[in-house]
Amino acid sequence: MRRRNFFAHGRASAGASVPASPGQPDTLPAGAPARKTRSRLFIKYVALFMAVVCVALLANGIFEFFFYYKEHKATLIRIQREQAEAAAAKLGQFIREIESQLGWTTQLPWSAGSMEQRRFDALRLLRQVPAITELAQLDATGKERLRVSRLAMDVVSSETDFSSEPKFSEAVAHKVYYGPVYFRRESEPYMTLSLAGTRRDAGVSVVEVNLKLI
Predict the structure, then answer these.
(1) Which of 5, 15, 83, 170 could form a disulfide with 177 if both were Cys (CB 3.0 to 4.6 A apart)?
(2) In b/e form, how buried is each residue of 188-202, taking b as 16+ CB within 10 angstroms?
(3) What would the mean pLDDT of 117-134 be, rounded to a whole number?
């Protein structure tokens, strides 16, 4: 009886030291949670560092783009200003040459010279200055006495009153009048130019200038 209990007790003691079967979970080492925590912190720090670097690079890129945009815009404005000044100088010279050619048509008063002679002088002006499409001569009261055109029939003594229009009143007041640019046939730019004579009775010469020929 004692021997049987001894063998039973030995088998129980031996069974306590038998390792766990393959189906049972292994016990985790004590340092595993610490390693996982350090790994997660490392990933977070790397992500934070990358975010800071990306924000810095983005801010620097935006600053450089803004600086380049301002510099490029200033360059374009400077180029456009230079081109506008060059065009204005060329236009001014172009208009002054037409004024000098137009000046001799306002030297004599309307009482001197025949209408045929004035018409001949007007046709000669159109031949000498291709940019002039039309010439109208107004007397001292602002009435049209002669109109010579490349695009229409010549008109003599139409007596149309232009005394209230700027091309007559402004020319009389300031000796010269530059009208606004307008378009004929929706493509060719024109401008009205009026020149008053040195004497009141010489009247005003009005020309339509084709700016395309500048």
Answers:
(1) 170
(2) eebbbbbbbbeeeeb
(3) 90
